[in-house]
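Example 205, ligand magnesium ion.
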Amino acid sequence: MKVNINNVKLLISAVRRAQYPNTHMPEIALAGRSNVGKSSMINKVLNRKSLARVSGTPGKTITINFYDVDNQLMLVDLPGYGYAARSKKEVEAWGTMINEYLESRPQLCQVVQLVDSRHKPSREDIAMQEWIQDCCAYSVVFATKCDKLSKTQLAANLEMITETLSLREGDILIPFSVKQKESFDAFWEYIEGCVLEEDEEEAEG
Ligand SMILES: Nc1nc2c(ncn2[C@@H]2O[C@H](COP(=O)(O)OP(=O)(O)O)[C@@H](O)[C@H]2O)c(=O)[nH]1
Ligand SMILES: [Mg+2]
């Protein structure tokens, strides 16, 4: 199945469940700490400059953004965690919002985690990964900003990330950079292999 990435729209930036779109396509949610590169990834894989807002200062918006990709796939940009300058109230609001989505969305097909390829995953990254391992058949992690590392450093860090997140056989860890064409291909290869294919199989039988 081919997806036309020119046919994309931001359906809504939702703050509560009642605002989630009433759609039936499979959803891929992107989770990660603020500033890890979620918005940049969305722009990169949809070949757009500024569909998703990339911010210099992390964590301003606490919304769940639903991007309808060609009526076939929804990319869901979850609010980032781990933004130190947030108040207790904001952190609570974040928790409620993200749980509400993760626990009540039947269309959700995979939570894809983004971690910064340069750093050891944080406690919050590990907690997110544990949640994914509990709820999904396997986990998918993208290691972002890999253009900032040499090949050798990247290889070492991918091992460190695998270990820190306790990734298992069958889990997927993919290096990602907005500056590299391979990353665009790698993302869509994952989507076409794991998401749209499965969908077709289900439809067939
Ligand atoms: N060098 C490099 N910078 C990146 C990459 N992805 C994101 N960034 C930068 O990281 C910062 C945060 O990105 P953003 O997409 O807003 O992160 P979000 O908070 O997770 O949505 C911005 O300054 C981006 O330009 C990447 O692959 N390579
Ligand atoms: Mg963002």
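Summary: The CA atoms of residues 28 and 112 lie 7 Å apart.
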